[in-house]
Amino acid sequence: MSSRKITLSESEMPKAWYNIAADFARPMPPPVGKDGKPIGPDALARVFPMNLIEQEMSSERWIEIPEPVRAALYQWRPTPLHRAAGLERALGTPAKIFFKNESLSPSGSHKNNSAIPQAYYNKQFGITRLTTETGAGQWGTALSHAARLFGLECRVYMVRVSYRQKPMRQSLMRLWGARCIPSPSTETQAGRDVLAATPDTPGSLGIAISEAIEDAVTHDNTRYALGSVLNHVCLHQTIIGLEAREQFKKINLRPDVVVACAGGGSNFAGLAFPFLADKIAGRDMRVVAVESASCPKMTRGVYAYDSGDVAMMTPLLPMFTLGHGFIPPGIHAGGLRFHGMAPTVSHALREGLIEASAIPQLECFRAAALFAGSEGIVPAPESSHAIAQTIREALRAKEEGRERVIVFNLSGHGLLDLSGYQDFLDGKLEDFEQTEATLRPGIESIANLPKIG
Ligand SMILES: *Cc1c(COP(=O)(O)O)cnc(C)c1O
């Protein structure tokens, strides 16, 4: 009998994170300031605690997971590796499809995997208060949960339009003791400036990041926390792929194709990087990062230095980007609307270790509906991009008559995103076509920044 879920005991959970920076053949370009000069740890010291800055810049291959962090992760980890037998039957494919179920965390996505260590390291450094921004609300809820566990105050600047549209995410943050404020707000100069100029603005992630960073640097014992993109966030997420590798060993299989959706890149990095270590060591496999066709930084962007926010408060990072001035259309996969891709994931793409694919919204919702019907789990709209790519791969395996092993990351569930499904079921969703003209303003926003040497 083939088992439907491959599990690990708590004692089998990995005890160290995997840092891919140690294994790249060519090193990543360094982060730089606006003058084009590499920045040192001190440049970040008002924003992040030094122990996390050290992790951000580390090139050690393995970084130990502190015991209190492991203890907190046991609330839901290790997560099972599921065999998607129902989806295989629905597709009539000879492929064996597996998924890592990251929807089982307290907030329903993989983001808790980094929220927990970030709260822990801040606490260790003597920080008492965290600030962050949230768009759709997944990161804000994950950080609220982690801050509560480690006894930190937490303030979340939530993009105003989402604050109104997603009151349930607000309730979750409040339940875990965080204060959630619609952005732009009157609490910061950045927010007051925007409100004075455009009182009716729906807000944006770029504005909310500027507010959260300003709040952190102007208050004592306060630091800022980011939910994706940075090296240390991708590092924390590798627990996903490290567990999955152990789980595949238990059933004597190895994936031929590894798939995950990519917004800022952290859940993709989390599943893929431990398998990339095998690929770098010579094993043949394909690794596919799936972005939204309406925010196509890897397939249609440029590899360049760019900032993480509109106000350009962050250092410049080497990444595939559409430009920080890019305004993404209002697709339901809110987590895939960021303009840039994590430097580590961007570098892996440049090095030819991974492929990128872009899929439009409707194909993803159809894939999600098939998955919900055959596996019973309602996927997050973001995760549905990984499912749509997996279905493409499984159908190709069927055409070729190959028994390929495919694994994808189910980065979260969609039970708090049912309004998106409602629009889909009511036939109100459309695909948004990006053209050279719609992409040009974003690319122009980085024309005068330092170039990657
Ligand atoms: C935030 C989010 C994403 C996108 O972020 P990454 O950093 O690219 O992983 C994907 N899926 C879910 C469920 C999310 O909450």
Please outline what is shown here:
This protein is α/β, with parallel strands linked by helices and 453 residues long. It has helices at residues 50-57, 67-73, 85-91, 112-124, 138-149, 160-165, 167-175, 189-197, 205-217, 231-237, 239-250, 266-280, 297-300, 343-350, 361-375, 383-400, 418-425, 436-444, and strands at 5-6, 16-18, 62-64, 81-83, 96-101, 129-134, 153-159, 179-183, 222-224, 257-261, 286-292, 302-306, 317-321, 355-359, 405-410. Strands 1-4-5-15-10-11-14 form a seven-stranded mixed beta sheet, sandwiched between helices.
Strand neighbour order, sheet with most strands: 1-4-5-15-10-11-14
Question: What's the β-strand tally?
Answer: 15
**How many distinct domains?**
2
How much of the polypeptide forms β-strand, as a percent range?
A: 15-25%
Low-confidence stretches: none
Shape assignment: globular
Q: Can you summarize the main beta sheet?
A: 7 strands, mixed
The CATH architecture term of the largest domain is 3-Layer(aba) Sandwich
Q: For the CA atoms, what is the radius of gyration?
A: 21 Å
Query: What's the CATH class label of the largest domain?
Result: Alpha Beta
Bound molecules: pyridoxal-5'-phosphate
> Share of helix among residues?
25-40%
User: What is the terminal-to-terminal distance?
Assistant: 56 Å
What is the mean predicted local confidence, pLDDT?
A: 95
| Helix count from the secondary structure assignment | 18
CATH topology tier name of the largest domain: Rossmann fold
The helix/strand class is alpha/beta
Explain this structure to me?
The protein is globular and about 60 Å long. It folds into 2 domains: 5-15 and 62-108 and 232-444, Rossmann fold (3-Layer(aba) Sandwich), CATH 3.40.50; 112-227, Rossmann fold (3-Layer(aba) Sandwich). The strands form 4 sheets. It has a 7-stranded mixed sheet with strand order 1-4-5-15-10-11-14, sandwiched between helices. A 4-stranded parallel sheet has the order 8-7-6-9, sandwiched between helices. It has helices at residues 50-57, 67-73, 85-91, 112-124, 138-149, 160-165, 167-175, 189-197, 205-217, 231-237, 239-250, 266-280, 297-300, 343-350, 361-375, 383-400, 418-425, 436-444; strands spanning 5-6, 16-18, 62-64, 81-83, 96-101, 129-134, 153-159, 179-183, 222-224, 257-261, 286-292, 302-306, 317-321, 355-359, 405-410. Helix 4 packs across helix 5 (138-149) and helix 10 (231-237) crosses helix 12 (266-280). The model has no long low-confidence stretch (mean pLDDT 95). The protein has 453 residues and is an alpha/beta fold. The chain has 18 helices and 15 strands.
